[in-house]
Amino acid sequence: MTERTLVKNLAALEDGLVTVSGWVETVRDQKKVQFVVLRDESGAVQLVNPRTDDTEAVAEIISGLAQGSFVTATGELKHDERVKLGGIEVKLATLVVETAAIAETPIAADSGIDKRMDWRFLDLRRPEQNLVFRVQTTLEHAWRTYWVEHDFIEIHTPKLMASASESRAELFEVDYFDTKAYLSQSPQFFKQMAQPAGFGKVFEVGPAFRADPSFTSRHATEFTSVDAEISWIDSHEDVMQLHEELMVAGFKAVKEKHGDEIKALFDVDIEVPTQPFPRIPLAEAKEIVASRGYVVPREDDDMDPEGERQIAAYVKETYGHDFVFLTDYAASIRPFYHMRNAADETITNSYDLVYNGVEISTGAQREHRIDVLVEQAKQKGLDPEELEFYLDFFRYGVPPHGGFGMGLSRVLMLMLHQTNLREVVYLFRGPTRLTP
Amino acid sequence: MTERTLVKNLAALEDGLVTVSGWVETVRDQKKVQFVVLRDESGAVQLVNPRTDDTEAVAEIISGLAQGSFVTATGELKHDERVKLGGIEVKLATLVVETAAIAETPIAADSGIDKRMDWRFLDLRRPEQNLVFRVQTTLEHAWRTYWVEHDFIEIHTPKLMASASESRAELFEVDYFDTKAYLSQSPQFFKQMAQPAGFGKVFEVGPAFRADPSFTSRHATEFTSVDAEISWIDSHEDVMQLHEELMVAGFKAVKEKHGDEIKALFDVDIEVPTQPFPRIPLAEAKEIVASRGYVVPREDDDMDPEGERQIAAYVKETYGHDFVFLTDYAASIRPFYHMRNAADETITNSYDLVYNGVEISTGAQREHRIDVLVEQAKQKGLDPEELEFYLDFFRYGVPPHGGFGMGLSRVLMLMLHQTNLREVVYLFRGPTRLTP
Questions:
Q1: Which residues in B30-114 belong to E strands, given as ranges?
Q2: How close B331 gets to chain A, by Cα (Å)?
């Protein structure tokens, strides 16, 4: 490996010889002195080259240096509080250009989102973008650590399926040798399979695919789904308790590791949510929203995005909380496998989790009684024959169970107060976006 | 949640009232006394019901109990060393059948692999299978913990691509709105993208897809790929050092957490490999194999599976090691993006990692000099125009870098001395296998 010091570790060093590697963010090529700002994955530092006869070799390199080039620099680290960038600079001894960049950069700070997506690998060099993915790493690791410490089993369910896992409408079709396969819209059926398999508690973080032709700021045709499913629950309340514990574990880790940086780069204070999160039955939520003067303009029993924002505003005003579980969704707008409420079969043992006004997750107790499950499938107009492989899971013994699926990037988007999912996805996929 | 004690925790309790939940593994319905073996995700315990007038209600339930049914049992825990199954039993007070199984079980202990795949959710109830996925969980978590502690960033690269990432031959085609997309064969191009993006070090664990029509015991059309890619390497040696550290971290964690159980259920002693792993240039490996009397029957410069077994046997005899890096593969059999050796451009800065005689991974330094990269693509008969989005990654500055991709299930298969990948995959996908 190139023996280099990460920029973030320079400040703690005493003055002396150091080597840093990264890319050239800016060059100021003045007559008497040259400045280069070098950035690596951890931060930026100023390199300085006073022009004398002795430094002409380095000076020539700097004069020809294109922004974006990757270089390795060796020189004397000096602490100097007059230097705006972190109070340190490196007086260059040698500068090696590893790869020279094309002089013209295709995007600028003010480029539109679509242009930046075209050049995503350059866009990702921005410190804000780098931070997004370090936050993602910390968040996921906190969740997995929670799961592992609580005896969950990690599964990788297949993304190639012989039939639809949710609705046929948003299904991608794959040429599969002499037949057709479909891309999994969610690991729903297969994470449930772990329950009759006796796995107890399972989790998966993996891709899911929706052939959704819409162009909103919060939809993608491919997204990272965060899923858990647990046995022996009494109701969706048990799932919600797991869910809020996970969110707390994730937010704690992010605040601890990146709180200051998030404040500096996004002007956002990460708040670790308090438990329990507020829970409001959907019917009640709609009344609250109506009393605030907003009538949800839908013919079915569902909320709409403005309704979610309104109920979130109410919850924030009333409970000071960024999260709210909307519970007891009408059976009419939930999939056939959600368990109905024992006392009122028009509603389900289910919930949506709303964070900062946007839905990030759906959870539910699943119907595990085969006769009821078949009946509910028929009511939804599904053909039980097509679901045989799934229905078999319930015929040889299965514990009561439930779980949730959550969109990873939605959580990140809302946590960092971004308005577009594309800002927090490594490479976005949409109806007209397949490259890079 | 159902308040239950995991079976594995019973032995440490004092005699007294307990509740356990799980599925019925066996029933012995005798005249004077009934026995039920209940299993949960953590182990098995004997339930006993002496038949008296007082226990007739429970007796009737047991008499009607189908194997596989999920039940919750409450009763008096008793330590009794005469009980073969762990020296404990539970004298039943109540037994609640949560879901009754169909009486006839479609698979038996001696069912063939294909039949067992048809009923994978029942096959997974076997303690060996349960252990496979707990080992998988521990292995992955150890790897991710290593990465996180070493400042790697976790990425999720898209599985939908506009073009091939490796060879066109094994590509699945997807109907994508008005165009075609392809399923990613590996995250190769996109994990490399993180290098010009300045991410430094990245990892990903996710699905990869190969439209490979072969039916061997170690191939699948969908598999879980474990990938890492790091900046500022000097050669593939740096990648190998990372790779062996990761393997050691993973094996340590598995041995510590599951060593005894793996010994009991698979009769395998998990050995933590010593560092450094042996390294043998491929040309030398072929000579060694030839000197053992096996001439690799291939016209190209590659090894074959028998050659890998032979060199592994040699390494085991000579160095007592289960792993070997075969290095310096001929350029003729490596992809265009592998960097060539500076002194001999007929060989590459690349390696395969062989474990217990089977290849589990390919790693390499990547060619990051755009002119050389374009030239190598042309030499392989590729059209640079089709690769433009990838080649752009190298035009705006990029650090020297390299990495590896590894098959998760191959590692598990070889670690647990299994002969078929299907035994260690949650749900196998092959040319004729899309269900369940």
A1: 33-40, 43-50, 70-79, 88-99
A2: 23
Q: Does residue B167 surpass a pLDDT of 80?
A: no
Helix (H, G, I), strand (E, B) or coil at A376: helix
Chain centre distance of CA B286: 28
pLDDT above 90: residue A130: yes
Is B262 at the interface with chain A, CB within 8 A?
no
The Cα–Cα gap between A72 and A297 comes to 59
Average pLDDT (B417-426) is: 96
Cβ distance of A193 and B23 shorter than 8 Å: no
Nearest to B400 among A98, A194, A224 (CB): A98
- Other CB atoms within a 10 A radius of the CB of residue A342 amount to 8
**Binding residue ranges of A for ATP:** 359, 407-410
Q: How far B87 CA sits from the closest chain A CA (Å)?
A: 23
Residue A178: Cβ within 10 Å count: 7
Q: Which domains does chain B carry?
A: 7-99 (2.40.50.140), 121-424 (3.30.930.10)
pLDDT in tens, A49-108: 999 999 999 999 999 999 999 999 999 999 999 999 999 999 999 999 999 999 888 999
B51 touches chain A (CB under 8 A): no
Amino acid, single-letter form, for residue A414: L
Residue with tokens 């780098």: A130
**Nearest-CA distance B137 → chain A (Å):** 5
Residues in chain B: 436
Write the ipTM: 0.97
The answer to whether residues B5 and B40 touch, using CB atoms and an 8 Å cutoff, is: no
Q: d(Cα B398, Cα B337) in Å, to the nearest integer? A: 14
Residue type, A30: Q
A127–B contact, CB cutoff 8 A: no
Q: Count Cα atoms within 13 angstroms, Cβ side, for B96.
A: 11
CA B173 – CA A164 distance, rounded (Å): 18
Q: Give the helix/strand (H/E) hosting B180.
A: strand B179-183
What pLDDT is stored for residue A420 in this prediction? 95
Residues 169-188 of A with CB under 8 A from B: 172-177, 179, 181, 183
Closest CA to B160 of A430, A91, A62: A430
Q: Which two tokens stand for residue A416?
A: 């960092």
The region of weakest confidence among A131-135, A165-169, B141-145, B304-308 is A165-169
Is residue B371 less than 8 Å (CB to CB) from chain A?
no
Contact status, residue B315 vs residue B276, Cβ threshold 8 Å = no
Q: What are phi and psi of A24, to 5 degrees?
A: -85, 115
> What single-letter amino acid sits at B404?
F
